[in-house]
Design goal:
142 residues, mainly alpha, 5 helices, 42% helix, elongated
């Protein structure tokens, strides 16, 4: 659905595979009993993350992406959900650039933006057009 479950903001020098351990630990601490499978691209196969995930979490890490030696464009399973969510969160000005001094503030802003997105989904949508029968003309019978 593209909803934010856990978020960690790190320095750009921290690899995705290393930061994923912190994200998985937070997600497990939050207690998501229905979360069983986590999808990641080939980068998450580095630094022993699949083995660490098996040993330390209840999640099953499924790696997707191109096989070694493949070239050209390839659609990656469920990648559009992640990219769509990033686009939604990027619409909020404070998420579009790094305005914050502390990573904790950036995490808070992402959570607030995600709450806003969830709130918009819960709000009933107003119909754009409400049909009304035309009023009868007074002298139409004459």
């Amino acid at each position: 659905m593209g909803l934010l479950l856990a978020v960690v903001v790190t320095a750009a020098s921290v690899t995705d595979a290393r930061a994923a351990r912190v994200v998985f630990a937070r997600a497990q601490a939050e207690g998501f009993p229905r979360l069983v499978k986590v999808l990641g691209d080939h980068v998450y196969g580095n630094e022993g993350l699949p083995e660490w995930t098996k040993a330390n979490t209840n999640f099953r890490l499924e790696l997707t992406g191109k096989k070694a030696g493949e070239s050209g464009f390839k659609v990656i399973k469920w990648r559009w959900v992640v990219e769509r969510t990033f686009a939604w969160l990027g619409r909020y000005r404070r998420n579009s650039r790094d305005y914050e001094k502390l990573p904790q503030t950036s995490e808070s802003m992402l959570k607030i933006s995600s709450i806003q997105l969830m709130r918009q989904r819960l709000r009933p949508k107003k119909p754009r057009f409400v049909f009304h029968y035309p009023k009868p003309l007074e002298n139409a019978a004459n």
